[in-house]
């Protein structure tokens, strides 16, 4: 991997010594520069689980991706720098307190003096890594987060709107180390099944320093300091223009 090209892609010029400061800086830089998007699925382009393919798409062609691509490549970067990082299998929370199957989502465990959860591939989520400690709440411009536990399962939970005390699990996972190839079957499902939400609509979303900007099919959504603003685009020409202007994506 050409680490410098990756760092240039995410506009990161900080230290590279494996530490929580470095991890947080890389994580934040990634979240603010690389979109969460599923556009290839709607262009009929197959998503292949391969680090070189991820690098070509995300770094060289300045695209985004979904969890397997974004976290897969971020894990490769962390390893190259010298971090102790593990791919984790997660099931995303659904209706009726149910969770998706194994490998529904990829998250990352990073071991330093403490254990941290990293995840640059879940869309609207935490900007910097969070501790594996239910007593520690991490708050940023996107919300408040913590890690809960029940037996072997851990849960990435998010608190409701300001003033609310309810915590809602976003996904559950175990600490069993996984390999990229183990996500292949679910990756195929996510990009081909009519039951997958990735096949139902186009999405492109990016965190900002004050909120988030999201393109959901032809709806443009901007959140700034908690204030939400929406508008419908005029058509495909404006869709292509917004992708370039707001996300740096040229298809």
Explain what this protein looks like in three dimensions.
- With 251 residues, this protein is of the alpha+beta class.
- The chain has a single domain, classed as Arylamine N-acetyltransferase fold (2-Layer Sandwich), CATH 3.30.2140.
- The chain has helices at 3-9, 20-33, 39-42, 51-60, 67-81, 184-192, 236-247; strands spanning 36-37, 84-92, 105-111, 115-118, 130-131, 138-140, 143-150, 153-159, 167-173, 203-207, 211-216, 219-224, 227-232.
- The strands form 2 sheets. An 8-stranded antiparallel β-sheet has the order 5-4-3-2-9-8-7-6, with helices on one face.
- The longest helix is centred in the N-terminal third of the chain and has 15 residues, at 67-81.
Biggest β-sheet: strands ordered side by side in the sheet: 5-4-3-2-9-8-7-6
Query: Any idea of the CATH class?
Result: Alpha Beta
Summarize model confidence as the mean pLDDT: 95
Percent of residues in β-strands = 25-35%
* Number of distinct beta strands: 13
How many strands, which pairing sense, and closed or not: the largest β-sheet? Answer: 8 strands, antiparallel
Low-pLDDT segments, ≥5 res: none
- What is the 3D shape? globular
CATH names the topology as Arylamine N-acetyltransferase fold
The span between the termini is 24 Å
The figure for the number of domains is: 1
């Amino acid at each position: 991997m050409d680490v410098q090209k990756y760092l240039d892609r995410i506009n990161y010029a900080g230290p590279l010594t494996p530490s929580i400061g470095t991890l947080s800086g890389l994580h934040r830089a990634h979240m603010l520069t690389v979109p969460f998007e599923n556009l290839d699925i709607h262009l009929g382009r197959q998503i292949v689980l391969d680090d070189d393919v991820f690098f070509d798409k995300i770094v060289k062609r300045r695209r985004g991706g979904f969890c397997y691509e974004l976290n897969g490549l971020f894990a490769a970067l962390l390893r190259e720098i010298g971090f102790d990082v593990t791919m984790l299998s997660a099931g995303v929370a659904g209706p009726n307190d149910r969770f998706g199957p194994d490998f529904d989502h990829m998250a990352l465990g990073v071991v330093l003096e403490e254990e941290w959860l990293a995840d640059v591939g879940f869309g609207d989520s935490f900007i910097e890594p969070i501790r594996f400690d239910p007593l520690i709440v991490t708050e940023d411009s996107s919300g408040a987060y913590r890690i809960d536990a029940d037996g072997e399962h851990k849960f990435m939970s998010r608190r409701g709107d300001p003033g609310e005390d309810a915590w809602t699990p976003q996904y559950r996972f175990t600490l069993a180390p996984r390999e990229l190839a183990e996500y292949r079957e679910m990756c195929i499902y996510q990009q081909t099944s009519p039951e997958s939400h990735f096949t139902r609509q186009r999405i492109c979303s990016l965190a900002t320093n004050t909120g988030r900007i999201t393109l959901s099919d032809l709806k443009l959504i901007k959140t700034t300091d908690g204030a939400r603003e929406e508008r419908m685009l005029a058509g495909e020409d404006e869709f292509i223009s917004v992708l370039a202007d707001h996300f740096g994506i040229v298809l």
